Amino acid sequence: MAKNKLKIGVLFGGKSAEHDVSVVSAKNIIGALDKSKYQIYPIKVHRDGSFDLKSLKKVDFVFPVLHGPYGEDGSMQGLLKILKKPFVGPSVLGSAVGMDKDVMKRLFRDAKIPIGKFVVIRSVDEKIPFEKIQKILGPSVFVKPANMGSSVGINKVENKKDWDKALKDAFLYDTKVIVEETIIGQEIECSVIGNENIIVSALGEIVPKNDFYSYKAKYIAKDGAALIIPARLPKAVTRKVQRIAAEVFKTLCCEGMGRVDFFVTKKGKIYVNEINTIPGFTEISMYPKLWEADGITTTKLLDRLIDLGLERFEREQNLKTIVS
Ligand SMILES: Nc1ncnc2c1ncn2[C@@H]1O[C@H](COP(=O)(O)OP(=O)(O)O)[C@@H](O)[C@H]1O
Ligand SMILES: [Mg+2]
User: Fold this and answer.
1) Does the residue 224 lie in any domain?
2) What φ, ψ does residue 122 adopt, rounded to 5°?
3) Quick one: 105 and 38 in the same domain?
4) What are phi and psi for residue 202, nearest 5 degrees?
5) What's the first-to-final CA gap in the chain, in angstroms?
6) Which ligand 1 atom sits closest to the C-alpha of 261?
7) Helix (H, G, I), strand (E, B) or coil at 200
8) Is the beta carbon of 151 within 6 A of some atom in ligand 1?
């Protein structure tokens, strides 16, 4: 019987500032995977990006539990495609556009998905005065590396003094930086699962203890943020957020899984913040928690994600590669 088990390679770690978060996510995923169905092969991607390609080649299926650049941005997905390995999560395109906060937002704009105002800066030498930014975006802004996660390199800036520092910090992690207007509202998250047929979860709410949902609030401070499920929103707003979450997933050509994050103002105005195509699976992570609230255990959730990966692979394998 053991021979028939699907050999699953769990990629974790990675050449990303989110390496440590990935280790925790992978530990939880490995713990929850159904051992009667799967033979699990943990494959560590070291901080320099190196890993054992031989182990990857021998598995039937891959679960990339890698957050951030080199893991969540389409590069690993490209390698898996070339190696003909089915895998969890979006393919190259969905992963790439879901990682880049600038390209993502431009696609949202095209699809008329509600977002806040933003400005993109492509070089640390592009000396834009803070007064000019404030004229466009308002008195308070968020400065972020375009491609990153876990709030790494992100700063809220409200005065000229912090502007240069925030830019320098963001440019440490990416060659492109996005500056956004600060949106004051509830932070809401929605889990999405599916390929062509998309299912959305109940909504969760994050209430950071301090200024915003920083790296520290996410993973270091014990009570950095409170998680409230279901989110405290009127039914009509909840439904609208869920509808937009599905639209975000489709607009960004995503498959498998995604967690769509929002801000909802007091007046009920909805803004999409971002999608995470390999969302966290730590103890405090919303993606699995929201499904649990809907009665789906993480073990069952992982079964479904694996099925979706296999289904997508099958579909791709059936495409013609020769003209006849
Ligand atoms: N435009 C914004 N307005 C208000 N808060 C923001 C804004 N952008 C980010 N934040 C805060 O910073 C956190 C991290 O930003 P986010 O864009 O989600 O980056 P990451 O991809 O690192 O999670 C958010 O969870 C939120 O608390
Ligand atoms: Mg986020």
Assistant:
1) yes
2) -100, -5
3) no
4) -60, 165
5) 41
6) 18
7) strand
8) yes
Tokens representing 148 are 């990153």
Same domain? For 246 and 105 the reply is yes
Tell whether 161 and 248 lie within a shared domain: no
Mean pLDDT within 108-121? 98
Task: Kindly give the distance from the C-alpha atom of residue 241 to the centroid of ligand 1, in angstroms, as a whole number.
Answer: 17
Per-residue pLDDT tens digits for 202-249:
999 999 998 888 888 888 777 889 999 999 999 999 999 999 999 999
111-115: Cβ within 8 A, 24+ apart: 111/247, 111/251, 113/244, 113/247, 113/248, 113/251, 113/272, 114/244, 114/269, 114/270, 114/271, 114/272, 115/271, 115/272
The pTM is what? 0.96
Q: How far is CA 208 from CA 41, 81, 219, 308, in A?
A: 36, 38, 12, 33
2-36 pLDDT, tens digit each: 568 999 999 999 999 899 999 999 999 999 999 99
Q: Indicate if ligand 1 lies below 6 Å from the C-beta of 212.
A: yes
Closest CA to 312 of 200, 197, 201, 199: 197
Could you tell me the distance, in angstroms and rounded to a whole number, from the CA of residue 55 to the centre of ligand 2? 32
- Whole-number Å distance between alpha carbons of 147 and 150: 11
- CATH classification of the domain holding 233: 3.30.470.20
Q: 13 with 102, same domain?
A: no
| Ligand 1: nearest atom to the Cα of 182 | 3
Instruction: Please tell me the total count of domains within the chain.
Output: 3
User: What is the residue range of 145's domain?
Assistant: 118-181
Two structure tokens written together for 174: 């990416």
- Ligand of minimum distance to the alpha carbon of 208: 1
Shared domain for 254 and 170, answered yes or no, is: no
Residues 58 and 83 in one domain: yes
Tokens read off for 62? 């891959």
